[in-house]
Design brief:
The structure holds two protein chains of two kinds. By secondary structure, chain A is of the alpha+beta class. Chain A has helices spanning 54-66, 168-185, 225-244, 290-298, 304-315, 319-326, 329-340, 347-372, 383-394, 400-413, 417-424, 432-445, 447-454, 459-471, 478-494; strands at 3-14, 52-53, 70-71, 74-75, 78-81, 91-94, 101-109, 115-127, 131-136, 142-148, 155-161, 197-207, 217-222, 252-257, 262-265, 278-279, 286-287. The two termini of chain B are 26 Å apart. Classes of the chains: A alpha+beta, B mainly alpha.
């Protein structure tokens, strides 16, 4: 029997608000000294009251709208009780039965390019917990635990999908799409390695064609996208094997062990799952008017999917190039800024320019950015300088290798391409008179190769071509050189 | 309410143990029995509330009319660290120190 995976993802997104979810402490805990962004509310001292951060509520609404959700007209907070020292209060303020956003969707493509709609169950608001550092005892056994409360109370959004994902590849696409949306909205950094974006997977399998869901296993502890896809692949294969061997899947929580490349059972939390939710008495419910929703909606930027479609339509770019360019808002903005600085006016001209710009940005630019672990928003090359390089290149005033060298220099120094070209004497020798002279010299200095060519040995042409390039120190235009060489050699051949 | 449904107004000892586990209380058998009696009495008292007809009343977690109380997203100064750590039962350097947590 064939089995199909059924996967739902729970994503936690940290918001980049200035202050925490329920108090005024600065929320940027990453760079802070331990326990310096802490106040009586964070420490749950008696008599303190949490007050909701308006920006976090608006950000949550914005995420919901971007995921095609409905924003609730009324929403409230609840206490989620569980005994673990990362909670100062003994409970986490979260949302249980009236989340801020419900029932949305995200459109993806399956492996055959067919559309797949992943429904979103909900988006809710909660607070992050303290950071625990586990110190092993001298014998390697349990030692003690240190606590940094800075992160406790920072705003965390949970996005829960329906079990509509059918493969690890789709899960990866879903995660990357949500990350891209969060970054486009500017509400978070959505970085898995830094923990500002976390993902748990609910995985089950069922016979293909069956509509009932199998028992699900919750997989946790994956801190890279690659870990999520590996964990899902492993877990799906494990479950199918258990069933084929006559076993049964028990509902449980398993942790991904990256070193082992396997999911391993986590301590049974049978009763720990009883969170005894109840309405948070310290926070009055929120009413969300349609005016508020309208206001947030008006701030929504063009989202990646829409921008990708527009790039294909407006610039005639391929779907692949459009996807690459729009995967980050900064890259797509840069691309359009280069286009705005270009001089072409006709549609064909603008499209050809766009295609060339796209090649540069997804090629050399991306390569150098990756190498330097840099983001395009901090690149030294200004869009107008990029436009000027692309135009020079399109006029064939520079050959490939030289243009790349010029770009690398621009990337390093932020200088104008013209300055670099002049300083290094890099203009391409495209002038047929001077190039013809070089060709003539090479032909008379390499009699054997010329004789070989005349005798019908085509490969001799490549050798002669190399000699011309060498003589011109790489600045000869390959196309023109080739034409001139061939013309000269054909004359010799005919006169034999 | 964890565990099986008790008889009206009655806590089973299994349920008392479940609640004790969740609250990290270690109870002797004798204490379980004592709590069972006390909790059952409390439960019975609350059950009298279920006689009230609430079919036309919206559920509420609040008794005041207050709603939508929010603050602007402004960072304000936190406490100095020595004050943060002043009430911690144990500390080590810049951190609060607690017993080992096994996960």
């Amino acid at each position: 029997m064939e089995y199909e995976p059924v996967i739902g993802l729970e994503i936690h997104v940290q918001l980049s608000t200035k202050s925490k979810m329920f108090c005024g402490c600065a929320a940027d805990y990453q760079s802070a000294e331990p326990n310096t962004h802490v106040c009586p509310v964070c420490m749950a001292l008696p008599g303190t009251l949490p007050v909701v951060n308006r920006q976090a509520v608006e950000d949550a609404m914005m995420i919901g709208l971007a995921l095609n959700c409905q924003v609730a007209s009324a929403t409230k907070f609840d206490r989620k009780n569980y005994p673990y020292p990362d909670l100062m209060k003994g409970y986490q303020i979260s949302q249980f039965d009236s989340p801020i956003c419900i029932t949305g969707w995200l459109d993806l493509q399956d492996e055959n390019g067919e559309p797949v709609r992943v429904r979103i169950n909900r988006v809710h608001m909660e607070e992050d917990v303290a950071r625990l550092i586990h110190i092993a005892g001298p014998d390697g056994g349990p030692g003690h635990t240190l606590m940094d409360v800075n992160r406790a109370g920072t705003p965390l959004m949970e996005v829960v999908s329906e079990p509509d994902i059918r493969s690890a590849a789709q899960a990866e696409q879903y995660i990357e799409t949500v990350q891209s949306i969060i970054r486009y909205l500017g509400v978070g950094t959505a970085n898995m390695e830094e923990g500002s974006f976390r993902c748990d997977a609910n995985v089950s399998v069922r016979p293909r064609g069956e509509s009932k869901l199998g028992s699900k296993v919750e997989v946790k502890n994956m801190n890279r996208v690659k870990a999520v896809t590996r964990a899902i692949d492993y877990e799906v294969a494990r479950q199918i094997k258990v069933i084929r061997d006559g076993g049964r899947i028990v509902q449980e929580t398993r942790g991904w062990d990256d070193g082992q490349g396997a999911t391993v059972p986590q301590r049974s939390k049978e009763e720990a799952h009883d969170y005894r939710y109840f309405p948070e008495p310290d926070i009055p419910p929120l009413k969300i008017t349609s005016d508020m929703v309208q206001q947030v909606r008006s701030k929504l930027p063009e989202l990646p999917a829409a921008k990708k479609a527009r790039f294909q339509y407006q610039y005639g770019l391929s779907e692949y190039d459009s996807a690459l360019l729009t995967s980050s808002r900064a890259m797509s903005d840069y691309f359009e800024a280069v286009g705005a600085a270009a001089s072409g006016t006709s549609l064909d001209d603008r499209r050809a320019f766009a295609k060339e710009t796209s090649n540069w940005l997804t090629g050399e630019m991306s390569r150098l950015l990756n190498e330097a672990q840099q983001d395009i928003s901090s690149v030294r090359v200004k869009p107008a300088q990029m436009a000027s390089l692309v135009e020079t290149f399109r006029r064939r005033d520079l050959n490939n290798a030289t243009a790349k060298a010029v770009f690398q220099e621009m990337y390093r120094t932020g200088q104008d391409p013209e300055v670099i070209i002049d300083a290094k004497g890099l203009t391409k020798v495209a002038d047929t008179n001077s190039l013809g002279l070089v060709v003539e010299q090479v032909v008379s200095a390499n009699k054997v190769a010329v004789a070989d060519y005349v005798a019908g040995k085509e490969t001799a042409l490549r050798f002669l071509m190399g000699q011309v390039m060498k003589a011109s120190r790489g600045q000869a235009d390959p196309e023109i050189t080739m034409r001139l060489l061939r013309e000269r050699l054909e004359v010799l051949k005919a006169s034999r | 309410m964890p565990g099986s449904t008790p008889q009206a107004g009655l806590f089973s000892s299994e349920q008392v143990r479940a609640v004790a586990r969740l609250t990290r209380l270690h109870l002797t058998d004798e204490e379980v029995e004592r709590m069972r009696g006390q909790l059952s009495a409390i439960l019975k008292h609350f059950e009298s509330l279920s006689k009230v007809d609430t079919s036309n009343i919206e559920p509420t977690g609040h008794t005041t009319e207050a709603h939508s109380v929010m603050r602007e997203d402004r960072a304000t100064p936190s406490l100095p660290r020595d004050l943060v750590l002043a009430n911690a039962p144990d500390k080590e350097g810049e951190f609060v120190r607690v017993r080992p947590v096994l996960e």
